[in-house]
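Lab notes, practical 5.
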Amino acid sequence: MTPISLLIIDDHPVYRDALCEKLTQDFRPHQITVIGVSDIAEAENVLRKSSNHWLALLDLKLPNSDPLDNIQALKQHDKLRNLIVISGLDEDVWEVKCIKAGADIFISKNNTSQFIYKKICDLLHISYADDLPPSKSALTKRQTDILRLMAMGDSNKIIAEHLLISEQTVKIHVAAIFRIFNVSNRTQAVYKARSLGLVS
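Output from the prediction step:
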């Protein structure tokens, strides 16, 4: 099996280096290498030269570049297995935009490094070091709200009306829930959520 490595793309050296150090420790038991770069050009150079597969953790707001263009540029590399966007910008505004552009998930920088670690584990389908169920803390608040309404049997249209969001936004969140839970339909997602005690 081709090894997978983690690529952190962030122009803030203090944040990037601190996250690299923490995730290097977290992923050492999984033999996953972590590398940090400051811009898209460096990231693409790494992807071109490496024989590994990669999961990229991309800072949304890099200088002198369009955030959605950056997502689409990285997604064209066949070595890129998953793409996580991380940002301090408004999650409700940017999450849907980033997923539409090709990102797997969006993570707010308000979250802890442990939360980020667990999100990455979920995408790679590997267990946490503390052996918690991968899906237990993986959902955003919006996804949790949608999941609870799904468990009540509400359709996407009804969920959209209840949460005052578009039906397309609901569909994007539902697809993200399926990816996180590694399921293919609503029934499986609700069953898994109930087994984890996330919904009643």
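Observations recorded by the TA: Residues 24 and 161 are 43 Å apart (CA to CA). The two ends are 39 Å apart (CA to CA).
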